[in-house]
Backbone:
C-alpha cells in the first residue's frame, strides 16, 4: 500500500488540492500562489508521511512532523480558522483511505482493518500536533496584540502621542459595575468572584473591534471606536454576562481629547451613582445635576441647607429613599423596614431641621438640588 501511495503521489496531491477548494470554502479563497506553493508542499509532505506510516506500521513522531508544526504556525499567523485546517488534514486522510481501500480483495480484510487503524492513529497524532502549534502561535499573537492595545490605551488616557493609526473619534465609556451577590457570601472567595465577573465583561467588550479597556471590580474606562455599537444593547449584554447592574456614562471625543473625556464620564458616574438608576447616560441627560456638582459659592449654599442632617443617617437615608421612590411613603417604609408612620415622623423632622419640606411639591426642586450639592461637596473628587 505504501508503494501505491508513493507511485501515485503527484496525482493524489492534485486530487487533495482540488477537493480542498471544492469542499472547504476557505481554501477556495486562497491566492493561487499560496495554494500551489505552500499548501501543495505541506500536502505532499503529509502524504509522504502517510506512506511511511504504511511502510513501517508506526505513526511518525519528532522531527518528521516539524513541517506540520511550521505549517500550523503559519496558518495561525494568517488567521486561518483551526477547524478549516484540521478539516484539510482529514480530507487528505480520506483521499488516501479511498485509494488504499480500492485495491483490497475480500480475503485481505484483516490487512484493511490494520491499515484503517494506522490511518486513524496518524490523523489523531496530526490533530494533536497541529492544534498545539496553532494555539501556541495564536496565544503569542494575542499576547502581543493585548500588550500593544494596553500600551495605546495607557498613552491615550495620559494624553501622550501614539504612533499607531487611530480612529477619528472614540466613544469614551465610564463603567460602574455592581457587586455580584456571590461577592458578599462569606464562604466564597470574593476576589475570585470579582475576577470572574470582570472576565465576562471584558469578553463582551472585546467583541467590539478596536475596543480597549481598563477595569477593576467596581468599574473602569473603555474606549470604543466611533460610531460605537448601540450602547443600550451593550449595557444589557454586560449586565447579563456579569450578572450585575452596569451603568454607562459616555461621551464622544477625538483621540487627542480622551483625557478630558475620561474626566467627564467619571464625573457623570459620580452623579449617576447617587441620583439615578442603572442605565446609559450622557452629559445632556445629567446637565442640571452635573452643573450643581461643580464647585461654586452657590453649590456650597445649597449643600449647607442639608448640614443639619449630616450626622443623622436615619433622616438622610429616609430622604434619599423617599425621593428615589418618587415620594411614595409606603414603598419607602418597605425599603427601610419601618412603619409608614415612622417615615412621616422622619419627614417632619427633616422639614423642621432644614426648612425644606419633602412632602410639598414646590420644595422638591430645591431639595433635589441641595442633595446633589451636598453629595458633591462631600465627594473626594
Residues:
Amino acid at each position: 500500500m505504501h508503494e501505491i501511495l508513493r507511485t501515485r503521489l503527484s496525482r493524489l496531491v492534485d486530487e487533495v488540492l482540488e477537493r480542498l477548494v471544492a469542499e472547504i470554502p476557505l481554501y477556495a479563497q486562497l491566492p493561487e500562489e499560496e495554494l500551489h506553493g505552500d499548501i501543495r508542499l505541506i500536502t505532499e509532505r503529509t502524504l509522504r508521511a502517510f506512506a511511511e506510516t504504511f511502510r513501517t506500521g508506526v505513526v511518525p513522531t519528532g522531527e518528521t512532523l516539524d513541517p506540520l508544526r511550521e505549517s500550523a504556525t503559519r496558518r495561525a499567523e494568517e488567521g486561518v480558522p483551526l477547524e478549516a485546517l484540521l478539516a484539510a488534514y482529514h480530507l487528505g486522510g480520506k483521499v488516501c483511505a479511498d485509494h488504499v481501500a480500492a485495491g483490497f480483495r475480500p480475503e485481505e480484510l484483516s490487512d484493511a482493518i490494520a491499515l484503517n487503524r494506522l490511518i486513524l492513529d496518524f490523523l489523531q497524532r496530526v490533530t494533536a500536533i497541529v492544534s498545539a502549534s496553532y494555539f501556541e502561535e495564536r496565544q503569542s499573537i494575542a499576547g502581543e496584540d493585548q500588550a500593544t492595545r494596553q500600551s495605546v490605551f495607557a498613552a491615550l488616557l495620559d494624553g501622550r502621542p501614539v504612533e499607531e493609526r487611530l480612529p477619528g473619534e472614540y466613544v469614551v465609556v465610564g463603567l460602574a459595575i455592581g457587586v455580584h451577590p456571590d461577592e458578599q457570601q462569606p464562604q466564597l472567595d470574593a476576589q475570585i468572584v470579582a475576577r470572574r465577573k470582570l472576565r465576562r465583561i471584558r469578553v463582551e467588550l472585546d467583541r467590539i473591534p478596536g475596543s480597549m479597556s481598563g477595569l477593576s471590580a467596581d468599574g473602569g474606562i473603555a474606549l470604543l471606536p466611533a460610531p460605537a455599537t448601540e450602547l443600550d444593547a451593550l449595557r444589557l449584554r454586560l449586565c447579563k454576562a456579569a450578572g450585575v447592574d452596569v451603568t454607562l456614562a459616555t461621551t464622544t471625543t477625538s483621540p487627542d481629547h480622551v483625557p478630558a473625556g475620561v474626566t467627564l464620564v467619571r464625573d457623570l458616574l459620580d452623579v449617576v451613582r447617587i441620583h439615578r438608576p442603572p442605565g446609559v447616560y450622557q452629559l445632556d441627560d445629567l446637565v442640571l445635576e452635573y452643573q450643581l456638582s461643580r464647585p461654586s459659592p452657590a453649590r456650597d449654599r445649597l449643600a449647607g441647607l442639608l448640614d443639619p442632617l449630616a450626622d443623622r443617617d436615619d433622616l438622610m437615608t429616609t430622604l434619599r429613599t423617599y425621593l428615589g421612590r418618587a415620594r411614595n411613603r409606603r414603598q419607602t417604609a418597605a425599603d427601610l423596614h419601618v412603619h409608614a408612620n415612622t417615615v412621616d415622623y422622619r419627614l417632619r423632622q427633616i422639614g423642621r431641621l432644614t426648612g425644606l419640606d419633602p412632602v410639598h411639591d414646590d420644595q422638591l426642586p430645591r431639595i433635589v438640588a441641595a442633595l446633589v450639592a451636598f453629595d458633591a461637596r462631600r465627594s473626594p473628587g
